[in-house]
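Folded chain entry —
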Amino acid sequence: MLSDPLANLFDDPTSWIIVASGQAQGKLRRIDGPDGKPALQLDYDFHGGGGFVVAKKEIQISLPDTFEIQFHLQGSGPNNHFEFKIADPRGTNAWRYLRENFQLPGEWAACQIRERDLPFAWGPAGGGAPTAIGAIELVIAAGPGGSGRICFF
């Protein structure tokens, strides 16, 4: 049986970086998920403004023609926009799963993203499906803004 290359994606907050726009701020920390499994918490605050907070991890993975990326999330905060993005290994093309006005689940909930749920967003490729991952980004973009937290395992 092949191992899941994303199985330990959220174990180490130091393997992620935060990118934020304007006055927005984000902070990552390791928390315990269900059954003590390592989880990643992103605390964000838009400080009364707009913008985005991104947690980004560089990771090199080849993708088959059809795939499914699975993780769990939960959190609290206003209904902002949640994005799961992947960039190709060169960082020039991006694919994005977008949930606008996303209500963060108060309890752990599964998130499954299939290749068909991850449309091409931008880049010189001009379209098509991703064949490899060079980076993963977890994004909270301001709708109403505010502050909150979102956790992943």
